[in-house]
Amino acid sequence: MRSVFFYGMSMRKFFQRTNLSSGRKKSLIQFCKGLSLRFGNLELLDLAFHHRSYSNENAEHRHMNNERLEFLGDSVLGMATATFLYEDMLDNPEGDLARIKSVVVSEQTLAPIAVRIGIDKMLVMGKGEEMSGGRQKKAILADAVEAVIGAYYLDSGYEAAEKLVLSLIIPEIRKVQQDKGARDYKTLLQEFYQKKCKECPTYELIKKSGPDHDQTFWVSVHLGKDTYGPAQGKNKKSAEQSAAQIAYETVCKK
Fold it and tell me: Is residue 146 flagged as an active site residue?
């Protein structure tokens, strides 16, 4: 906690040199009201919305991006989610907990949450990123969710940040438990495998059969030396999803 204290002190000194416009303050306060948050340091919350493209294009604000807060928030998100699953699913093995956790903390889940709570409207980014549709990019949206969590942890402590995490994540956990969540297994597999091995899965079309109007595709996925599948689908994309599901559910059990 001492390191967090000194980090918070340095952040306060930094923000003493910044000024939020009245309009930005109003927007930040409205954002907090929507989530029932009480931020003592609105500048810290504001930083959570600053994408690195903004600091890249504005040399005088080269330190104003949310990457450090994202790093911190990722850990808080993981801890709060893992603790809840541990206590909520006492009769389930570790593999079940790991699979659900990987789904609900993924870009696929966090990005829609970001849009639902209005993060897309709060983002501050460079002109280039703005022009390329940055406000709709899943990675940017998911990262901003984690940054907000990290900022709230620094501002109000772990218990408050945990409460925020669970308010966002428990509904997603229930969807997965009831098998109602829309799972993008290719994305989940890639995120899991990249984090574990720093490599990407590769997909191989094994064969396709049937007439042009009613074809069936068979695809395998390779994770290093390991191969999963082949799995079939009515198009290549669905076959890849099926192969990714086989691989994902297998590797998460190990």
Answer: yes
Structure tokens belonging to residue 111: 């990005």
For 23-48, what is the mean pLDDT? 96
Is residue 91 flagged as an active site residue? no
Reported as a single tens digit per residue, the pLDDT across 57-97 is 776 666 789 999 999 999 999 999 999 999 999 998 888 88
Could you tell me which of 33, 232, 66, 217 has the C-alpha nearest to residue 142?
66
Catalytic entry in 146, 162, 184, 240: 146
Residue 62, C-beta contacts closer than 8 angstroms, at least 6 positions apart = 55, 56
Quickly state the pLDDT bin for 182 (edges 50, 70, 90). low
